[in-house]
Amino acid sequence: MDIVVCVKRVPDTADAEVSIDRTGKDIEKDDLAFDINEWDNYAIEEAVLLKERLGGTVTVVTMGSEDDEEVLRRCLAVGADNAVRLDDPAFSGSDGHATAVALAAAIKELPYDLVLTGAVAGDDGYAHVGPAVAELLSVPHAALVTAIETGDKAVTVHRELEAGLEEVVALDLPAVLTIQTGINEPRYVSIAGIRRVARREIPVKGAGELGLQPQQAGAAGARVELEAMSLPETAQKGELLEGSVDSVADQLVRIFAGKGWLG
């Protein structure tokens, strides 16, 4: 089975002090560490597991600068066979749709039975690149996939729904699946694996090589314009009520009345 995995390098903001940059449309990233998008990490692991069981190839694709080759080499180190980086000044300002257009154009040139992406990117949270790629490739897709069962020319997948529900869907191949965390246990990247791929040349393709017109790429091809970004407002601190049960009840009544909650 030939599998293509779309991956992304994202900043780690979990324990960082985040601030908005001077453009007002992004965060300051100079002091942030970067790593593979968490959901994409599960996607590449699932692809390698399928290859180990069924044979075939795994190709990873990302859109980004030379710095983003870090995540491609990580994927090669854990078992991917090939990598492609998409880079072109024309890609600047891409939204989810324009990103999907570039990825789909690259995937069309590759052999594939399955295309895997993370369910969502940790930096923008749009969660629509995978489904958009499927639409552009004219193949079926399933989102938030938590298990994959392979057949002859089809796959049966379990996908996460709201309220703890699960749906089981059968899809003809080729297909696009967006992978949810928890589908597997991603393996560690060995030092030997990193050394093995450290000098490997990764091909780079631009908009022209992908057959994209100027109006399809970057900001020109975007469907969404980001106007401004802001940090979430600090929530008001809670108030601790002390005293007897009757005293606390009286305090609550006064608070609710003051807010107009008692009608």
Structure explained in plain terms:
The structure is a single chain. By secondary structure, this protein is of the alpha/beta class. It has one domain (2-221): 3-Layer(aba) Sandwich (Rossmann fold). 27% of the residues lie in helices and 22% in strands. The strands form two sheets. It has a nine-stranded mixed β-sheet with strand order 9-8-7-10-6-1-4-5-11, sandwiched between helices. The longest helix has 17 residues, at 38-54. The chain is globular and about 70 Å long.
Identify the notable features of this structure and list them briefly.
globular, 263 residues, two-stranded antiparallel ribbon, alpha/beta, nine-stranded mixed sheet
What series of H and E elements makes up the topology?
A: EEEHEHEHEHEEEEHEHH
Classify the secondary structure makeup into a structural class: alpha/beta
Query: Which of globular, elongated, flat, extended, rod-shaped describes the shape?
Result: globular
What is the CATH architecture term?
Answer: 3-Layer(aba) Sandwich
Task: Sketch the major β-sheet.
Answer: 9 strands, mixed
Count of domains: 1
For the terminal residues, how far apart are their CA atoms? 64 Å
Number of helices, where a helix is a run of at least 4 consecutive DSSP H or I residues: 7
The CATH topology is: Rossmann fold
Q: Return the average pLDDT rounded to an integer.
A: 93
Write down how many β-strands occur, each being a DSSP E stretch of 2 or more residues. Answer: 11
Radius of gyration: 23 Å
The strand line-up of the biggest sheet is 9-8-7-10-6-1-4-5-11
CATH class: Alpha Beta
Q: So, the CATH homologous superfamily?
A: HUPs
